[in-house]
TrEMBL record:
Entry keyword annotation includes Transferase: yes
Protein name per the record: Glycosyl transferase family 1
Glycosyltransferase subfamily 4-like N-terminal domain ranges (all copies): 16-177
Membrane-spanning intervals of the chain: none
InterPro entries found in the cross-reference section: Glyco_trans_1, Glyco_trans_4-like_N, Glycosyltransferase_grp1
Keywords from the UniProt entry: Transferase
Pfam family, one: Glyco_transf_4
Molecular function GO terms recorded: glycosyltransferase activity
Lineage: Bacteria, Bacillati, Bacillota, Bacilli, Bacillales
Gene3D superfamilies: Glycogen Phosphorylase B (3.40.50.2000)
Glycosyl transferase family domain residues: 191-304
């Protein structure tokens, strides 16, 4: 018997939090029962594309979703589902744009159409009216509503849907075993990076204005002024990286800030860190903070992030408007001992193995149930 194929809808399968989480699930599901395919919205190959194809998944490339070109995009979707008309489950992860895909899936009689919210906001820019439009057209199109947190559910689906009991919270789970603290790995990574005997502040995230890297650098400057034996590790790529590199150079911090680019070894890298710093303007329930907690790191995160993120009690939230000097002192005077968080994260359902098995059941049960309706 062939496995049921589930279409996962994303932007591009690069090493972001959502994409890494999906790959964690993909590796752990029983692929004799469920097989993932991916609809992406970039022509470039993603970091995970090779692995997806090795695991048996198909990758379908669609045009980027751009305001003013919605008609063209909708026609592409309709054409896609005319040809690929055997899907029983379409699981969309592109926030307010999910409505376009799920609408086409509905007209193609796909019985299970999942809209999944992964963020609590997207900020206000020139695309904001189009985001509101995307949320509006999603009304009544999904058969299932998933979110990483209650706050993310309210943002995308509205308070009425969130409070109706229709939304299922799917934990942003990680492979806990990969993040368990190991002194030998810590020593090896710190040696490779030449940061032995340093206080290591870490951050993992795409270089984007929403991640607030500029403030992160200001905080680090104040920490460095108090303790020159401090290093900042920045893992990730993105459109604001050059701007941040220029700021680091201007502040004379080049020797103490390491730009590591996209990494395939985040669990190992977190072993080398002492403190994790996360000053984002907004998030849903960021996977990277689950990873940092799984690594046992003390974490300082902005208060714009939902308190649901604090699964283990190891996150200290700070006011997003706090002065860098004040926060730096709080960090330097904090207890930066690591914590053993494996048991609590597993008990609270943040192990990717358990969540993957749960998803298998959701897909199979929901597709059969919707076919009966």
């Amino acid at each position: 018997m062939k496995p049921m194929r589930v279409l996962q809808v994303v932007t591009i399968m690069n090493r972001g939090g959502l994409e890494t989480m999906l790959m964690n699930y993909y590796r752990k599901i029983d692929r004799s029962k469920i097989q993932f395919d991916f609809m992406v919205h970039r022509m470039d190959r993603g970091h995970y594309d090779d692995e997806i194809e090795e695991l048996g998944g198909k990758i379908f490339r669609m045009p980027a979703i751009r305001p003013g070109r919605y008609r063209e995009y909708i026609r592409s979707l309709d054409d896609f589902f005319k040809v690929n008309n055997t899907y029983k489950v379409v699981h969309a992860h592109i926030n307010e744009n999910s409505g376009f895909v799920l609408r086409a899936a509905k007209y193609a009689n796909v019985p299970c159409r999942i809209a999944h919210s992964h963020t609590s906001d997207l900020g206000i820019d020139y695309k904001f009216p189009f985001r509101l439009y995307g949320r509006f057209i999603m009304k009544d199109i999904p058969t299932n509503y998933y979110a990483c947190s209650s706050r993310a559910a309210s943002w995308l689906f509205g308070n009425k849907v969130n409070k109706s009991g229709k939304v299922k919270i799917i934990n942003n789970a990680v492979n806990l075993n990969e993040y368990k603290f190991n002194q030998e790995i810590r020593n090896s990574v710190r040696s490779d990076l030449k940061i032995e005997n340093k206080l290591v502040i870490g951050h993992v995230g795409r270089f984007h204005s929403s991640k607030n890297h500029s403030f992160l650098i200001e905080i680090f400057r104040e920490i460095y002024n108090e303790n020159p034996d401090t290093v900042l590790l920045l893992a990730g790529e993105g459109p604001t990286r050059l701007k941040i590199e220029q700021k680091v150079k201007k502040l004379g911090l080049t020797n103490n800030v390491k730009f590591l680019g996209v990494r395939t070894d985040i669990p190992r890298l977190m072993q080398a860190m002492d403190i994790f710093l996360f000053p984002s303007f907004f998030e849903g329930l960021p996977v990277v903070l689950v990873e940092a907690q799984a690594a046992g790191l003390p974490i300082f995160a902005s208060n714009t992030i939902t308190r649901d993120t604090n699964i283990t009690g190891t996150i200290s939230f700070f006011n997003i408007k706090i002065k860098a000097t004040t926060l730096a002192k709080d960090i330097l005077t904090s207890n930066n001992e690591r914590h053993d968080t494996f048991t609590i994260l597993k008990e609270k359902g943040f192990d990717s193995v358990s969540v993957a098995k749960g998803l298998e059941g959701y897909y199979l049960e929901n597709s059969l149930e919707m076919e009966r309706v």
